Structure prediction request, 269 residues.
Amino acid sequence: MKDAIHPTAVIEDGALLGAGVEIGPFCHVGPQTTLGDGVRLVSHVSLAGDTTVGARTAIFPFASIGHQPQDLKYRGEPVRLMIGEDCLIREGVTMNPGTAGGGSETIVGPRSVFLANAHVGHDCRIGEGVILSNNVMLGGHCQIGDFANLGGGVAVHQFVRIGAYAFVGGLAGVEHDLIPFGIALGNRAALAGLNVVGLKRRGFSHETIHELRRAYKMLFNGGGALKERIDDVAAAFADQEAVQQIVAFLRQGGDRAICVPRAGKDEPG
Prediction:
């Protein structure tokens, strides 16, 4: 264990280190930090607060993890940050813990990737296998579903929900909730169809993708109130699990409106 910790690293009393942890030059590990088995801090990593890092997660230079939230209402109350196993956190990434107004914790799911200079704001909930590309900015209280993929420079407004398997194109400004399996493009971002490429890569069947397309057209190209269309889709696709994920997302609602297509824009091919 001693051989895996560089002599210039500072490990505060109280920090808990799992088996096989590697801590490189000039890292600082705070007294409330817990590092799971096989965690690797490459160099110049700063970990603070009540922060838990899951097994085999790798954190690269100049990442700032668990320092107090960027919320002017924060008054030093106990808060925490939970990071899942097998995550990749690249250079300059910042992750903040929660606040009393948001459940007091930020949660990052396993096997997620955070490329250089991405930011995870306070009280965010991030699912499994999420990808945040370079310079992605998540405001506080955002929810990002499993396997969602956010392109470089995306900015997500606080309290926005992004559904599972969704894709957000680079430089988009997302101020409304994005349905599962959807694509959002532009600033401000609009719904631009389904993430068909991502669905194929994740092994969704041709039949499932076909049914999702049919449901999408009923939801966003039909007439009447959205609530009525949601009810129609729920009944028409009662046995289609993927479609029901969209229905549940829409019915759950949130603090933001739903991202919809721009006027006159149908789903691409």
User: Anything to note?
Assistant: The chain has four helices and 27 strands.
